[in-house]
Design goal:
Helix 9 crosses helix 10 and helix 11 runs antiparallel to helix 12. The strands form eight sheets. This protein has a five-stranded mixed sheet. A five-stranded antiparallel sheet has the order 24-17-18-25-26. By secondary structure, it is an alpha+beta fold. The chain is built from 13 helices and 26 strands. 28% of the residues lie in helices and 27% in strands. The protein starts with a strand and ends in a 13-residue tail after the last helix. It has two domains: 245 residues, Gamma-glutamyl cyclotransferase-like (Hypothetical upf0131 protein ytfp, Roll), CATH 3.10.490.10; 221 residues, Aminohydrolase, N-terminal nucleophile (Ntn) domain (Glutamine Phosphoribosylpyrophosphate, subunit 1, domain 1), CATH 3.60.20. The chain is globular and about 80 Å long.
């Protein structure tokens, strides 16, 4: 594994087109080389944890096994790092202790023999001419010596998300993160959770841009930072998207925490965006319309989606006032707002098996003082042959569930048979679509997963959204972190999966996507439908002790009364 070599004073590249030119060269041949710690402290074949406090919160690594919200101590998060098109690197061959070391180092370090080469940043929000700003961490001891507008107590913490990287893809993820976080230094930090005095994760990898970095900006008035972020953009998108996504994601994982610097910046960016000229808003719209950067493909739902960001920067244009008004880009903003409400709800997923269907859902525990419901809060029986899982506004779901039950009873009364699954789904989606077409109405802020059986097509699984769209699925997920859950389902699902295997897969996926380190019956609901020996559909809503037994069998259970996930 290569070592990070540093020596001497900073040097800078004068001309990007000619990387071999060094403006300052003050190294003497006898100068001592300081050999610092290796860039990584773990084997490339071992699993490890990486802690994200910036874009990693809402745009996770390319592969991960578990996601745990938490915080680190002793650091301050600030928008003091420039984000540009290139991060210049230097490759050197240096003889040390009779060994030749071939390594790549930052531009602020230099050696007797150097070869400059250009390295494209994987994730950048500006250019050299118009750099954006992204976050870095500053140690509290160093921060106290700086002139910062925002306050920070020594007891304050920095919230983020830790990802567990499995061993089979550890090297691939490390290479990706090293490119994405090019120019940042690796620190190994402990991660804590609310209500716990001991770290839940020790020695997590964290990328930090030090003050020696050539792109380090340092403190500035908040108005200047706001203006710089609002007017900067790079190949990964406008800089404002980065800042707003970070603010929104932090409110999701740690609603009780308050980051003065970030939230003040968010407020000023939104005010500036609402009052900005139409022409500049159109420039952002045009950029997003033509953007096809691959980093958009694995963005998590915790952050603002590309659609939602468009809504923010065009708020002053008032095309979102009614569901019956299309924007110039052909969008119905109220429908997209309804879809955004679903991303904050507890996760629900369904898996189609050869001998049945399982629906599993996450219950959001908002307070220990709230009495637990004796009935299901996320899974409902629509008819003797159809059940559903919901994510979104519960009161909206109750209205649609009652309508669906009425449709099913009318069909049973008229034809003396259970309603076909797709027919029930279609009728309900027709109603939902109607609420997007008429003035004075608003869309239903809820998504459904339907699981059912009929004599025409056997077991069927459908998913619908507030627009009235629906489709058949083999495995589907709705609610918070649905992108990560859908990715895991895609990896592990197989066409000949049995109901027992489907239940195990559902529990495994929820354990990795829920914002909690432990699972039990207080946080989960399980239900299945299958055929009995007589060919009748049997609906089984799992009792709490049955859920705990399933989790214990899979080694996923735990006593969560001690731990409240943020």
């Amino acid at each position: 594994m290569s070592e990070l070599l540093t020596v001497g004073n900073p040097v800078f590249v004068k001309d990007r087109a000619e990387f071999a030119h060094v403006e300052r060269y003050q190294l003497q041949t006898q100068q001592c080389v300081q050999l610092q710690q290796p860039r990584t402290q773990h084997s490339e074949s071992q699993e490890y944890w990486v802690f994200g406090y910036g874009s990693l919160i809402w745009k996770p690594p390319i592969a991960w096994e578990k996601r745990v919200p938490g915080y680190i101590k002793g650091y301050v998060r600030r928008f003091w790092q420039a984000s540009t098109l290139f991060n210049i690197r230097v490759q050197t061959l240096y003889s040390y202790s009779d060994q030749t070391i071939n390594t790549t180092i930052s531009i602020f370090d230099y050696f007797p023999t150097v070869r400059f080469h250009q390295q494209h940043s994987v994730d950048h929000r500006g250019t050299r001419e118009n750099p954006g700003r992204v976050v870095t961490l500053v140690s509290h001891s160093e921060w106290k010596l700086l002139n910062d507008y925002h306050e920070h107590s020594e007891d304050d913490v920095t919230w983020g998300v830790a990802y567990k990287i499995p061993s089979h893809c550890a090297k691939e993820v490390k290479d990706y993160l090293d490119r994405r976080e090019s120019g940042y230094t690796i620190k190994l930090l402990d991660v804590y959770q609310k209500g716990k005095t001991q770290p839940v994760i020790k020695q997590a990898v964290c990328y930090i841009a030090t003050t020696r970095n050539s792109d380090y900006c340092g403190p500035a008035p908040i108005e200047k930072i706001t203006h710089q972020i609002f007017h900067s953009r790079g190949a990964s998108g406008p800089n404002i998207e980065y800042a707003l996504n970070l603010a929104k994601s932090l409110k999701t994982i740690a609603p009780d925490a308050f980051d003065h610097h970030l939230y003040d910046l968010e407020r000023q960016l939104l005010e500036l965006g609402a009052s900005h000229s139409k022409s500049s808003s159109n420039q952002l719209l045009t950029y997003f319309k033509n953007s096809s950067h691959p980093s958009l493909a694995h963005r998590g739902d915790a952050g603002y989606s590309k659609k939602t960001f468009l809504l923010i920067v065009t708020m002053a244009r008032r095309y979102d006032a009614r569901t019956t008004i299309f924007s110039p880009e052909g969008r119905l903003y109220q429908v997209e707002y309804a879809m955004e409400a679903i991303s904050h709800a507890g996760t629900a997923l369904g898996i189609l098996a050869t001998d049945g269907i399982v629906i599993a859902a996450e219950k959001k525990v908002t307070s220990k003082l709230l009495e637990q419901s004796v009935t299901s809060e996320k899974i409902y029986l629509l008819n003797s042959n159809v059940i559903c899982g919901v994510a979104g506004i519960t009161s909206d779901a109750n209205i649609l569930i009652n309508v669906a039950r009425k449709y099913a009873q009318q069909y049973l009364y008229s034809f003396d048979d259970d309603i076909p699954v797709e027919q029930l789904v279609q009728r309900l989606c027709d109603l939902k679509q109607g609420y997007t077409q008429y003035g004075g109405l608003r869309p239903f802020g809820v998504s459904f997963i339907y699981a059912g059986y009929d004599n025409y097509f056997g077991f069927q699984l459908y998913r619908s959204d507030p627009s009235g769209n629906y489709g058949g699925w083999k495995a589907a997920c709705i609610g918070a972190n649905n992108a990560g859950a859908q990715s895991l389902l895609k990896q592990d699902y197989k066409d000949d999966i049995t109901l027992k295997e489907a239940k195990e897969l559902a529990a495994k996926v929820l354990s990795k996507t829920m914002d909690s380190t432990t699972l039990n019956s207080e946080k989960l609901e399980f239900a299945t439908i299958q055929l009995n020996d007589e060919g009748k559909v049997v609906y089984n809503l799992y009792k709490p002790d049955e859920i705990d037994a399933l989790l214990k069998e899979l080694n996923l259970g735990g006593n969560s009364t001690e731990e409240e996930a943020s």
